[in-house]
Write a structure and sequence with these properties.
heterodimer, A: 95 residues, Protocatechuate 4,5-dioxygenase, Chain A, 7 helices, globular, B: 275 residues, alpha/beta, Protocatechuate 4,5-dioxygenase, Chain B, two-stranded antiparallel sheet, 9 helices
Chain lengths: 95, 275
């Protein structure tokens, strides 16, 4: 269920301003409190939102990564990376 | 005698408060919301019942009701940092909300109870434009329109019918306006966003079709056409159409008094005056 943890930490970026600041300055440490798989952790730190999307992370919540510019993302990089997952739309977002 | 006096379909784009502040009262969005505000004022509602899809702010993936009713004296929002939109305290009418929920559960609608909750832009942005003084109480009814499996369009239409019966059985005079909040075709932060943007409109033809069905008061065809496959094909928030369909269930189908699209956003503004 660690996809739920990724979804949760994305929302924490909105709600917890200390976590937001920590994710901007030292994301590897800030992610330490979350139980994530190596793949999830690696994809987050790389800002690889296409992989996270394929793992089932909610796109709407991932938007906070771009909005608050963490893990090397901004609207421009987020946009080009998430659009590369366009072939996987049908399988995502379900629970 | 309680009655439904008006129905309104509204968008809730979170950048609209900022854009309207920047571009002024003559901007397209400001003028469209002003038309809805005129129609809302004309029907003199005592209560707004708002069908809404929360964006994982009121609820979350660990606890996600398909249908829920807010039963509370008041609630606050938006809780998701909406630029140039104040955080409002919005009063409610818990007696009516409880009555609606009781009527629903007894009729086979298992409506979840939520009593201590914030709302996000999807409730607050339309109210910011239409009732900025927040003098009209609001009862929110939440429909899970983003996370598959979505409730069926038929079920949401019947939820609107339930609201109508609950209004009719309310023992005191009450003028109720029904709002449905959301888009017809919109992808937000998903793979089908447009280049350079955080959103996109994957299925403009679906928007055009919905507009024609609304204009012809053909709610039956709309309900029959709004499959989960079609709504999600129209974007990851395409299921927000269900809020409009629930709103349409609250009155007998008729032509809207006002209907205007914003095709670039995949949504529309609509008003039905029923009194």
């Amino acid at each position: 269920m660690s996809v739920l943890a990724v979804n949760r930490l994305c929302r924490e970026l909105l709600r917890d301003h200390e976590f937001r600041a920590a994710m901007r300055s030292d994301p590897a440490s800030a992610l330490g409190r979350y139980e994530l798989t190596a793949q999830e952790r690696g994809a987050l730190l790389a800002g690889d939102v296409a992989t996270l999307y394929r793992l089932g992370v909610n796109a709407f919540l991932m938007g906070y990564l771009a909005r608050f510019e963490v893990c090397g993302l901004n609207l421009e990089t987020y946009n080009s990376r998430i659009r590369s997952a366009a072939d996987d739309v049908a399988t995502a977002d379900g629970h | 005698m309680a009655e439904i006096v008006g129905a309104f379909g509204v968008p809730h784009t979170p950048v609209f408060p900022w854009l309207v502040k920047r571009d002024g009262p003559d901007s397209e969005t400001a003028r469209l919301f002003a038309r809805l505000t005129e129609h809302l004022a004309a029907v003199q509602p005592d209560l707004i019942v708002m069908f809404d899809t929360d964006h994982l702010n009121t609820f979350f993936l660990d606890n996600l009701p398909v249908f829920a009713v807010g039963v509370t004296e008041q609630f606050k929002g938006p809780c998701d940092e909406v630029r140039d939109c104040p955080i409002y305290t919005i009063k409610s009418l818990p007696d009516f909300a409880g009555h609606l929920r009781r009527a629903g559960v007894h009729a086979g609608f298992d409506l979840a109870l939520v009593q201590d909750f914030p709302v996000d832009h999807s409730v607050a942005v339309p109210l910011h434009f239409m009732t900025p003084t927040m003098h009209i109480p609001v009862v929110p009814v939440f429909i899970s329109g983003h996370i598959s499996p979505l409730p069926t369009a038929r079920r949401c239409f019947e939820l609107g019918r339930l609201l109508r019966r609950a209004v009719v059985s309310w023992p005191r005079p009450l003028r109720v306006a029904v709002l449905g909040s959301g888009s017809f075709s919109l992808e937000v932060f998903g793979p089908r966003i447009a280049p350079g943007r955080s959103d996109g409109v994957p299925d403009p033809q679906w928007v055009t079709r919905i507009l024609a069905l609304l204009d012809h008061a053909d709610v039956e065809t709309l309900v029959a056409s709004a499959s989960e496959e079609q709504m999600l094909k129209a974007g990851n928030v395409g299921g927000e159409l269900l809020n409009w369909i629930a709103m349409l269930g609250a009155f007998d189908a008729c032509k809207p008094n006002f209907l205007a699209p914003q095709m670039q956003n995949g949504h529309a503004y609509a008003a039905w005056r029923l009194s």
